[in-house]
Structure formats: C-alpha cells, structure tokens
Amino acid sequence: LLFKYAVPYVLPFIIGFAIAFMLKPIVRFLSTKLRLNHRFCGAVVILLAYALLALVLWFLGARLVSALTDLFGNAEQYFDIYIAPLLEKINSFTVETISVLSPDLAPQANDLFQGVIQSLQSGIVSLSGNVVGSLANIGAKIPGFLVAFAFTIMSSIFISMDYNQFTSFLLRQLPKRWRDMAFEVKGYFVGTILRYLRAYLILMIITFVELSIGFGVIGIGNPIGVAAIIALCDALPVLGTGGIVIPWILLELLKGNYQLVIGLTVVYIIVTVLRNFIEPKVIGQQLGLHPIVTLVSIYIGFKLIGVAGMILFPIFMQIIVSL
Length: 323
Description:
The protein is mostly helical. The chain contains 12 helices and no strands. The longest helix is centred in the middle third of the chain and has 43 residues, at 176-218.
C-alpha cells in the first residue's frame, strides 16, 4: 500500500536522496583530494551526473522513438509494397493447386484468402495508429516528467550539500530502539542492491555473448557492436531484448528479408528462453534466495506495482530474510 499509493507523491525526493547517496563517495573523495568546499563539490558532482544521464537518455530515447515512429507510421505503405504482393502470390499458388484438386473449392479459397489479406491490412493500420498514438501520449507526458525531474535534481543537490545534516534529521525522527535496526536495514539494503546489480551485470554479459554468437552465425554486420547495444537495453526492465529485436524482425519482414527474419527469430527465441531460465537462478544466487522464492517475488511484485515491483520485491524479500 505504501509503494502503490504514497510513494508516487514523494518519488522525486526519494530518487533525489538515492542519487545523492550513490554519489556521496565521489563528492567526499573530490572534496578531500581537491580541498574544495563540500557543499560546492556536492552541487557540481550532482549537476554533472544529471547532465550525463540526460544526454544518454536523450540520445537513446530520440533514436528509439524515431525508429518506432518510422516503422509504425509507414506500416501500411510497407504492407502494400512488400507483404501484399507476397500474399497475392501465395493466394494464386494456393487457388491454382486447389483448382486442380477440386475446381469447386477454388473460388471459396480465393474469397477466404482475400478476406485474410484485408483483415491483416486493417489490423496493421489499427496497430500502427495505436502505436503512433501511444508515442504521442508519451510526448504529451514530457512536461509533467520534466517538472518531476526538476524537483528530483533540486532535492538531490540540496541533500548532497547537507547530507550529514539531512540524514541526522531523519534518524532523530526514529525512536532510539529503532535506530540500530535502521542502520541494519540500510546495510542489508545497500548490500542487496549491489548484489542485484552484479546479478544483472552477469545476465547482461550472458546475453551479450549469446547475441554476439547468434548475430555472427546469421551474418549481421558488426555483430559485437550490435549485441553490446541490445545487451545494454536488455538491462532495462521495460525495453529488454525484445524491445529492439522484435521491431527489427518486423522491419526486415516488411522489407522481404525472410532469411534474416528467420535467423533473428531463432536467435531471439534462444536468448529469451535461456534468459527466463537462468534469471531467477542467477538473481537467487546473488541475493542468497532460492530460485523459486526469487521467481515468486518477481511475479508478485509485477502483479502489485508493475515493472518496478519486479526489481524491488526480491530486494525486500532478501531484507526480510536477513532480518
């Protein structure tokens, strides 16, 4: 209930505190080595970190949105140019074959196939419209995101400048008998986050190796570079490997590169099956949980609060077990 209803109202400040906490060692190191004012050093480090993050997100997001808009915005045109002629050839071959076997069924088969073609065309038009509309809705939400992002930046700067004072204030709000527990939870939480990141780094490396081999076998140009980009996206819960490979398969299908479509599909199926098999085991080993417990935690988290729950609930489970 806390995460579902309360956290959204203070999420920018929670993220701001988390970023200030993660960058605290860098701020302390630079402040000590360069003998700079701690408050000044904290503000500069936070701003540089956000600038780098914004640059990366802008570059990747702009490329992804542009590619998806081009793909689905021209889906009907691709259908008319590439897919419709192929379906007509299949239709002609099928009708000719049936007319040899049973001339009476040939007209019915032709009507059936024409209906399938029309249904596919209307389905593609509807899908492309929905996707383009969804991308437009994302664009409409950007102002709200920017407002929350601005509050996140400001909160992380102020927290970083007065980190000790801020954390001491939070600690004083707890009864004395709870303070040792708070430090214990903090230790478990930080350790669990680090192990969780290590688990996903292992999964990302495994995905990179699988994709590199698969792309090399099917003849993709620069297989290592392409595999590295997709492996980085695979670390993102929403995007994943399918967020890149599935649109790629659809694009090649529209272009008529059927051999490449088959190769990419086989590679994607192998990577997905192996990922779904080893992910609970790898995360469970890193967190010290049984794979079944990890799998249950991921699923319950997803059902309760969505993608974020898939990341948070195994961490909470580890903290509960540790306590």
